[in-house]
Structure formats: C-alpha cells, structure tokens
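Quick question, first post here. What does this chain look like in 3D?
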Amino acid sequence: MATARRERFIRAQLAWMLGATLVLVLLDSLSYELVFVVSLIGFLVVVELTAPIAVTPAWRRRLRWLIGIGLVVFGYIVVREILAILPPGVI
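> Answer (accepted):
Ran it through. Tokens below.
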C-alpha cells in the first residue's frame, strides 16, 4: 500500500515537472531558475494533495528536508534577482 502511494507521488511530481518544462519551452522562457521555481511549486502542491489523513509514513516525514532545502534555494534566487534589479549605487 505504501509503495503504491509513493509511486503515485513520484509519478505526479514527474508529470508536473515534465509539463512545466514543456510549457516553459513552448513559451521560450526556459531557464534553470524558472524550472526550479515551478518544480518547487508543483512539489509543494503534490505534497499537500497526496497527504494522508491519519498516519504519516516515514518517507513523507523526510520530505520536510527537501521542502526546507527548496525554500532556501528559492530565497537565494529571489535575493539574486532583486539585487540584479536594483541600481548599482543602492547597495
């Protein structure tokens, strides 16, 4: 039972990432940052939509580490983009 749910989670995440990459390619907006951000959003959505009601398996508890690392990298990307927008004399 847990293996089927884990496989469903992985399939949903892969489908989201492939779909997002395809849309970014079609929009001619493909970049590492955008793929990462859209994949992180999809990851968070898939985690919430596939969350069990009563008992949380051990493999789902380990997803917190991936979420934390993803949010740190997202913060780095946001700060880097903000610094690129600011005029040179501001900092």
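The helical segments are 2-26, 32-49, 58-61, 63-85.
The chain has four helices and no strands.
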